[in-house]
Amino acid sequence: MEMNKKLVIMVVDDIPININLIKAFLRKTPHEILSATSGAQALQMAEEKHPDLVLLDIMMPDMDGHKVLSHLKSNPKTADIKVVMQSAVADEFSMQKAMELGASGYLNKPIQLDALMNILATFQ
After folding, report:
1. Interval 6-28: pLDDT, tens
2. What does the buried/exposed string (b/e) look like for 24-50 if buried means 16 or more CB atoms within 10 Å of the residue's CB?
3. If exposure means fewest CB atoms within 10 Å of the residue's CB, which of 80, 84, 99, 104 is most exposed?
4. Got the DSSP string for 28-69?
5. What is the pTM of this model?
6. Domain ranges of the chain
7. pLDDT tens digits, residue range 55-82?
8. CB atoms within 10 A of CB 11
9. 52 and 45 in contact (C-beta within 8 Å)?
10. Fold for domain 8-121?
11. Which of 76, 25, 30 lies closest to 50, judged by CA?
């Protein structure tokens, strides 16, 4: 798949191997990949770096992905950042809640390359 635009993508997950998997999927694309392993780190980085897209895990300790998404969307400095939620729990409630909070999409874990590339194509 040809990527027309270099995106700055922030991957937020408390499990480093999940971040590394997405980085491996995207290593041959022109995209810049940032990573955060906590909700607090993600919020700070989003404000400083203003990524084009955040791939945000839902199930994290301290601050779950829904809370992070809510903070991102309520902050005028980060409200326009596109957020795609990712979770191993593919239940209707989690998906609906994410969309109500302003998510632009939802990926099921384990992340599949085709699904990830389809999401990225919508931002090209």
Report:
1. 999 999 999 999 999 999 999 98
2. ebbeebebebbbbbbbebbbebbeeee
3. 80
4. TSS-EEEEESSHHHHHHHHHHH--SEEEEES--SSS-HHHHH
5. 0.93
6. 8-121
7. 999 999 999 999 999 999 999 999 999 9
8. 25
9. no
10. Rossmann fold (3.40.50)
11. 76
